[in-house]
UniProtKB/TrEMBL annotation:
One annotated GO biological process: monoatomic anion transport
InterPro entries cross-referenced by the UniProt entry: MFS, MFS_dom, MFS_Na/Anion_cotransporter, MFS_trans_sf
Gene Ontology cellular component terms for the protein in this record: membrane
Organism: Caerostris extrusa (Bark spider)
Subcellular location field: Membrane
Membrane-protein topology: Multi-pass membrane protein
Protein name, entry field: Vesicular glutamate transporter 1
Molecular function GO terms recorded: transmembrane transporter activity
Keywords for the protein's UniProt record, in alphabetical order: Membrane, Transmembrane, Transmembrane helix
Length: 252
């Protein structure tokens, strides 16, 4: 059906040229690996994925009980205990990795369990401290902190990995865990479960919060959940739209 193009066949690579290309590729590959030595741990892709995945599984498991514990035992106490747990196990993660990959996986899963209650507890704190007309903005500002923190931590992590501080990569765990411990110490002094427990709040401020913070819904719980449902649907719609645009190669 299609006529062979002899001019195109003349451009095929000869066996000698293939050998030269193969030797060049092997040389470049060897040089690249010599300049970038292998990591300290010989973990395959499956183990690496399991390590990361179980941390997020721990977060998923801890969301609902974490929020409930905040309601029972107090948001401040639960937040400090959970964040302190995540911070301490982050600090000992390099030691756990040197012991065994399985101890490291367990350690990272506990980090996920400890970090999970933070977001539900912050929602509880917002409902008690922020007026109704400002809660959406504060919640959005809080969520923006996740992206900002990821951006800043990526920059700092790159610097720490290329340094010799505490052996390079362990310093990432030591620094992030230590910051969490410092934050827990600060929370123990400046954070209170409700405005009624704050020692320096004025009567005027307390009255303002009482007027502008509504009671939790009792009869219209279904209607009050509609904004959250719409937000979830809208997020899925935006994600699908971005995928459609990328398939059209309009953005990279």
């Amino acid at each position: 059906m299609v006529k062979p193009n002899h001019k195109e066949s003349s451009s095929l690579t000869t066996p000698n040229e293939c050998s030269e290309i193969r030797n060049k590729i092997n040389y470049n590959t060897t040089e690249r690996f010599e300049n970038h030595p292998a990591g300290q741990f010989n973990w395959d892709a499956e183990i690496q994925g399991l390590t990361i995945g179980l941390q997020f599984i721990g977060m998923i498991i801890g969301y609902i009980p974490g929020g409930r514990l905040g309601e029972i035992y107090g948001a401040k106490r639960t937040m400090i205990c959970s964040l302190l747990t995540a911070s301490l196990f982050t600090i000992i993660s390099p030691v756990a990795a040197r012991i065994s990959v399985y101890t490291f996986i367990i350690c990272r899963m506990i980090v996920g369990l400890g970090a999970a209650p933070i977001f539900p507890i912050l929602v509880i704190m917002i409902s008690k401290w922020i007026p109704d007309t400002e809660q959406s903005f504060v919640a959005s500002f809080m969520l923006a902190g996740y992206g900002t923190g990821a951006f800043v931590s990526s920059l700092v992590t790159g610097i720490l990995l290329s340094s010799e501080l505490f052996g390079g990569w362990p310093s990432v765990f030591y620094l992030s865990g230590s910051l969490g411990v410092v934050f827990c110490i600060l929370c123990s002094f400046v954070v209170y479960d409700s405005p009624y427990l704050h020692p320096s709040i004025t009567l005027k401020e307390l009255e303002y919060l009482e007027i502008n913070i509504a009671e939790p819904p009792k009869e219209n719980g279904l209607l009050s959940s509609v904004p959250n449902l719409l937000r979830a649907v809208f997020a899925c719609f935006i994600g699908a739209m971005i995928d459609w645009v990328r398939r059209r190669k309009e953005i990279q």
